């Protein structure tokens, strides 16, 4: 009779980071992640529903039809919908709204997808280390095509990208990040870093077994555009920074930073941890 050993073997990866997988809006482009918010607010306004910025931001990071579904489930929005339409919303309404949303979102993306300051320098620094740069997003493929075109005009092209509509389930499921790993031909999740500005995006990276880095200032947790942020004095910025850092730390991220401009230092720290056998 064979003896069963009372332990499991766990492989320890001690190499360096091979891939960094970044979200797009609020992480690598669109400071403040305003493109989706403006489009969602305009969409609901066209149906007689006034959605606040906080309501529009709450489901951020999810696939966009799911985002609409969650907004309609909010009591205040559902109440307005019923007052406007004379009935409760249905799944057919979700799909109809999504098709209306597509051109509105694409137009908003084209107007609000400048690169996050410092990203080109960070991307070059990481690529010089042999690190591959992937992307994933709650945007559909049509939305991503518009975004990628703008990013290319600013000088950045990802090595691979996966959209939420290309996998069976979007965030917080790990499938998008895993699909990017496959495209980049990286076998070890421990060698990957997932960077995101939403809690659900960080959860995606954690579920994939990756290192996770939350950006607190450039994205959804802050919600201010670059000019709005720059107009604040240092004291005002510190108040918002503290609140945004606390919020993103609650996501379980391994690291919280202002923006991707700070990413090379984080990757260097992760490399030191990996060399010591520390795993995400």
TrEMBL record:
Entry coiled-coil feature ranges: none
Reactions that this protein is recorded to catalyse: phosphonoacetaldehyde + H2O = acetaldehyde + phosphate + H(+)
Annotated keywords: Hydrolase, Magnesium, Metal-binding, Schiff base
Gene3D superfamilies in the record: HAD superfamily/HAD-like, Putative phosphatase, domain 2
Cofactor note: Binds 1 Mg(2+) ion per subunit.
Binding site for Mg(2+): 23, 25, 197
Pfam families: Hydrolase (PF00702)
EC number assigned by the record: 3.11.1.1
InterPro entries the record matches: HAD-like_hydrolase_sf (IPR050155), HAD-like_sf (IPR036412), HAD-SF_hydro_IA (IPR006439), HAD_sf (IPR023214), PGP-like_dom2 (IPR023198), Phosphonoacetald_hydro (IPR006323)
GO molecular function: hydrolase activity
Cofactor (UniProt): Mg(2+)
Keyword Membrane among UniProt keywords: no
Annotated catalytic residues: 23, 64
UniProt key word Metal-binding: yes
HAMAP family per UniProt: PhnX
Quaternary structure note: Homodimer.
Record-stated family: Belongs to the HAD-like hydrolase superfamily. PhnX family.
Function (record text): Involved in phosphonate degradation.
Protein's name according to its UniProt entry: Phosphonoacetaldehyde hydrolase
Species name: Litoribacillus peritrichatus
Organism classification: Bacteria, Pseudomonadati, Pseudomonadota, Gammaproteobacteria, Oceanospirillales
